[in-house]
Design brief:
The protein has 440 residues and is of the alpha+beta class. It has 16 helices and 10 strands. The chain folds into 2 domains: 12-321, Glycosyltransferase; 327-439, Beta Complex (Ferric Hydroxamate Uptake Protein, Chain A, domain 1). The strands form 3 sheets. Strands 4-3-10-8-9 form a 5-stranded mixed β-sheet, covered by helices on one side. Helix 3 packs parallel to helix 5, helix 4 packs antiparallel against helix 5 and helix 11 (247-259) runs antiparallel to helix 13. It is globular, with a radius of gyration of 22 Å. Cobalamin binds at residues 103, 105-106, 109, 156-157, 159-160, 195, 197-198, 246, 248-249, 252, 285, 288, 291, 387-393, 403, 408-411, 417-422, 424, 440.
Amino acid sequence: MMWYQRGTAGTEALRMLSVALSIAVLLAAEGCGAEDTVHQDCTINTEERARMLGILQLSTIDSELPNPSVLLALNLAGDSSKARQYLLEQIKETAVKQAKDMSSGQVALYTLALLSSCCNPRHVKVHRQSVDLLSILQEKTDQEVAHWEEYGIPQSTLFSMGLDAQALCVVGAGGYQSAAVILAKQLLSSQGELSVDEQAMMALALVCAYNQTKLQDVRDLLKTALTKVSNALLDKQAEGNGMIGNIYSTGLATQLLLAAGKFYAPRAWDCRQPVATITKHHLQQPMAVAQALPALVGRTYLDSASLNCSYEASTTTNLQLDPILSQGMMAEKVSTITVKYTIINHLIGHYFTYTTTVSVPAGSVLLVVLEEAQRVDPNFSFKTVPTSWGPMVVSIHGLDASETERTFWQFFSSSDALEEGVGTYKPHNGEHILAVFSTY
Ligand code: B12
């Protein structure tokens, strides 16, 4: 039985040929490298690719948790460094030990990361222990669907459900159709309320599902949703001069526009615009780089199962850290800034509002402000958990965020919601930061 299929091939014959070739390569090799054709006009230059790969490679040593999005990006960008190999081993070990306790979206990312490394997710084996990641993913996706049917919301996030359906579809496993139909209906009924990131990940799943399904009414539904979303993202690109949503969602939206060409045809897409926008920004955060890089090399998550896996001699990339950033950090050390910080709960239980003003070294990230506030006044006590995007604040003043209640601590600069977390956002002198207990 075929355990995976290419999701984006143009014709049936080409798809079958591609599947056959990929399986042959898979049987012959354990590693990977990618050599298919990509949109040459819309790919980043060699220097920027090397800089981004360097950040990802370095993150494999730095991070506490192995990050499947990083492995996926390294593979889609054709990296064959030792760092990639080291991360692959860590991903396999973590999958075997922890997959059952992960969220559905995490299992989906592990599946895509392993697929793109030409490892069979049905049988991940490390030190005589093994795990069937696909069965776990199928079970967790069924739970997401059941939760949706009962409460009208996913157990985790729509973004994760998009990843679940993508992984199951790309692998050719089935069991993603109900999720795809839910995602399509949701995109049609409330596309405007969803973030660009969510729309892109949900719609990418639909592209794969559309290419695999023969049921005419399902195809019609998926086509309508994909036409709506891809056109909406093209409109956003035009409004934002290349930016689709914000800088962190532009890469994911570009993936969708790469994969969904036939759904907005004959409308033209200037793919150079978002690529130039992201390149100009010189992303630094490993997770931001990991989500942006696939589109910048002309690939999407749907290509995970069709990479040409063959080990070449290991290549290492010289890490080029942004000189402006390091100079800036040195200059900023000399002075201090003052930041006003307010915490508000007007949502549940005993309402509270506390405000303080703290001084921290200029150039400090927001986390330092929170730590200083907590040090001088225990009312500002807080807790964080490590995530793929860095530390996430999960509790302030003893009030915990809850996935079941769908509550979280939302951060603002005056009235504007922050677009980065406490581990990377750098407040300026005189800024007013607010943490507001909110729902999503
Ligand atoms: C769903 C979502 C949320 C949900 C998470 C709900 C949940 N428990 O599942 C909620 C609403 C809580 C949320 C909050 C925030 N988010 Co958010 N979120 C997302 C989104 C759309 C999908 C994440 C996901 O499901 N991933 C799939 C799963 C399988 O992967 P995962 O690693 O397990 O995902 C976890 C982390 O992503 C974490 N998380 C979610 N958002 C953030 C943000 C930060 C800064 C951190 C450290 C962690 C984190 O929660 C996920 C589930 O546990 C992403 C989009 C994206 N491009 O990744 C944005 C995204 C990650 N979020 C973002 C931001 C800015 C925030 C906030 C800082 C917004 C704010 N102004 O307060 C807050 C976090 C504040 C805090 N308390 O520290 C940015 C991060 C950009 C950056 N460079 O740091 C993203 C990329 C959106 C964007 N394009 O701007 N988010």
